Amino acid sequence: MSTAPTPLLASSNGLQLAYDRFGDPGGQPLLLIMGLGTQMIAWDEAFCGQLADRGYHVIRFDNRDIGQSTHLSTAAVPDVGKLLMQALGGQPIDPASVPYTLADMALDTVGLLDALGIQDAHIVGASMGGAIAQEVAMRYPRRVRTLVSIMSTSGAPDLPPPQPEAMQVLMTPTPPDRAGYLARAQKVAKILRPGSYPEEEARDMERAERAFERGLNPAGYVRQLAGILASGSRRERLGAVRTPTLVIHGEDDPLVPVECGRDVARHVPGARMLTIPRMGHALPRAAWPAIVDAITEHAVWTE
User: What ranges do the domains of the chain cover?
Assistant: First the structure.
């Protein structure tokens, strides 16, 4: 089993981003971007190790405002309830009304590549990370060898919304105390990972404890969610993507329904789609073989 490397810090876009790496630094770089309010350790060390064993130089990092990367503690905390009502009502949100958007987070990603001396990389993003990866491919196409968008969306307003329980999870504040945070984390895991996964359930507490020990930033979660809402739809712009693209989505995703992934695949020219039975909005170990195979088969050398 792969162990977690010692986190490092890189200067990017005026911030400090915490990151670590797996595998041979001379291998093809493969950058993993995690989702809303979720630290880089959600890319399990063993999962990263499996990718590294295929010859890739695997890099994961904490997005801004989460984990051990810079917390924008002086930035405003938006009213996401109000923003969500605007978005659901089809009203555009002024990007200037929020501290940052997905475009800023895409620039963070490119800045990390710059700091590491990497010209281009295979980019893999999950959930919000998939949306950031899409933005990188659209705004900085020369920096992306291949794109993998996992359990993500185009952000188009006419797509199916989250199931009610998942929506409630999305909008529930993160408790700052240890007991409250651990209880919420276990509840969230059960809702987003529907079905029976005893092996995953046995590890939920350990994962939550690791995240708590690394450091919480509830306000950062709110700012990230506001940034997603203010970024609007990417559907029309996805048509300009020429990067080889793979979309992976769980058939039972309660937060970002599978139709959202299909929408991304339909609008990126030449994109391929892989749906995984029984998978929700999570990366359970049972799905790793299919996901790792799909990523590595897609991430061909693109010199």
Answer: 8-160+217-298
Tell me, what's the pLDDT at 3?
62
Buried b (16+ CB within 10 A) or exposed e, 89-102: eeeebeeeebbbbb
Domain at 8-160+217-298, CATH class: alpha beta
**What's the token pair of residue 264?**
């991304």
Per-residue pLDDT reduced to its tens digit, 20-73: 999 999 999 999 999 999 999 999 999 999 999 999 999 999 999 999 999 999
Counting every residue, how long is the chain? 303
Q: How far apart are CA 215 and CA 140, in angstroms?
A: 31
CA gyration radius for the chain?
A: 18
CA distance 251 to 266: 16
CA dist list (Å): 268 to 115, 235, 264: 29, 9, 6
